[in-house]
Amino acid sequence: METKSIKRRDFLKITAAGTAVVGGLRLARGTAASETGDASPYKWAMVIDQAKCIGCGYCTLACRAQNDVAPQISWNRVMEAGKAGDKTIYLPRPCMHCENAPCVEVCMVKASYRRPDGIVMMDYDRCIGCRYCEVACPYSARAFNWEEFTEPNPAVPAWGTPQVDRRPRGVVEKCSFCYHRIDRGLALGMKPGIDVEATPACVVACPVGARMFGDLNDPESPVSKALAANPSYRLREDLGTSPRVYYLPAREESST
Amino acid sequence: MTAMRGRFRITPFMVWVGLLSVIMASGAVAGYIVFTQGLVVTNLTDLVPWGLWITIDLSAIAMSAGAFLLCAAVYLLGLKRFQPVAKTATFIGLIGYSMAVLTLLLDIGRPDRFWHALVFWNPHSLLWEVTMCVTLYFTVLMLESAPIFGRAAWLQQRWPRLAERLDSIHHYAPFLAIIGLGLSMLHQSSLGATYGVLKARPIWYRPDLSVLFMASAIAGGPSLTVLVSRLAGRLTRHAHVDEDLLDRLTYFIGWVLVGYLYFRFWDALSMTYTYQPGRTEGLELLTKGRLSFNFWAGEMLLGAAIPAVILLVPRLRRHALLQMLALALVVGGVVAYRWDVNMAGQLVVLTYLPHEISARYTQYVPSLVEFLSGAGIVAYGVLAVTLGVRYLNLVDHRQGEAVAEEVHLPAAAAAD
Fold this sequence. Notes:
Chain A has 256 residues and is α+β, with helices and mostly antiparallel strands. Chain A has helices at 2-36, 58-67, 102-106, 132-136, 179-187, 201-205, 222-229; strands at residues 44-49, 77-84, 87-93, 112-114, 120-122, 143-144, 172-173, 211-215, 245-248. In chain A, a hairpin with a 5-residue loop joins strand 4 (112-114) and strand 5 (120-122).
């Protein structure tokens, strides 16, 4: 008898509470949507010209020094990707800063999030190290800190000095498009992609000018011009992730 | 066996508890190494970041599925005679969930930030949902288990008030069964979906995983419950089992296995239809490659087909030892399935090089520290259930007077 009346009354209570929770979730999702909505005047992108890349790896070293990345981790790997004629083609791979980033979708604490200007960020104070983003990223652009990085960074000072904090053990890290350089540069009235101080370290370090950076909203930016003048592709476009890193393919005639 | 009069004697119970304690102690040492040195002591990598611990976590959750099923059967479908089995299942669920929480604390890189999952919400993430389900359903299991503690004679003697309080929670059992059903089903299927939503790993990227995680848990959870009940009934005089009750439940498990095999068949067959990079290689890993023994023998033959036959043919099922073997095989099969799902998507990684999207193979064998800490957690679970059988009257299918006399006597005035 007693259980029945409790059941009925509490059933109403749980229904009300459930409705409130669902409503709350909808609100939460609503704010999440407006956060990722492109409310920024900028749309940062990188263009990598494979016809020019010689696979020297300077970009990786500059990135290591700039972002204080441990030797066993690479935010920016340079891989061999076949041949054009007798010339080896390379594929440098930073974070793709996807418009539909799987890592942002799966992160349970929103430690991975997307800024309105398109940079996919990591909140290292929030990450709990579950590594769901690692299995979700199609580009293997993420690295986990399996151990503490305590030694001096071998890339410093030859390739630059660290401008961001070293990540603690137990969190996932990745390329940030050197957001600190972009933000500081903008605050000083500079133009990322044009002014060296405001441009990602890998772009600045490239000795052959294979990397370009800039604002896709600005038709005069290096990236907009390069994409308008050349055929380009992005990695795994079939997945619909919409990367903000574009590649200009190397072709046999361009290898001379 | 347990006649303790006179001088001190070593009983099998003491040996068993001692053995489990040793495994737990070595697990604690391994756990300490993990917390002080970090996950570098594991054999996990950036390409295979989820390994043995995640398998133990998933298996512990699957084995807890008996709790929601039997509570729903008793309090929602009105199958009252299964109430004593629901009690066993609820306790196993409570221990299973605590095991899962322990493994997750080992596995996450920043265990000190475990609470972030409860404070910083991303409702879009399957792992957020899983975290919520673990937290809420663990709470439900604690409430559902409270009367088990409240009815323990030693608690009633020492703290009758507290015992009465705990016991009185059983009035909410139907209500808890409804919430438990929702949360637990959501949780079991979401664990499959956690893998199923990942586009980057084609062998995982399919909706079937949620259904199969659910179906296998419905087979595995009650199997463990019945197996524990039967083992307890044979090994200790503290347990009293009703053969007929358990027989019905095992028959049900037999049919669940048939349904599970049917879904598995369509799931596997649909993946063979056309070549898809990554997915086909993953499937071949299961059917012909490194995971093939585990797949064919562990999951299919021993884990589902043979136990289904044993549990559905009355003559075989009534053979007590054969039935227990079948139940143990089902449990093993579910664990093998969790391991295979987790590994199949990680041992094959798709490259992203343009014009040659191809599969690349990775390696993973758990390290000693992973094995020891994992074994420690399993030993904790086994010890908790052992102590539950011994001191909490966990397996007692006698209904009516006999039970009332023995269990309620010391605090009869307070409890009834």
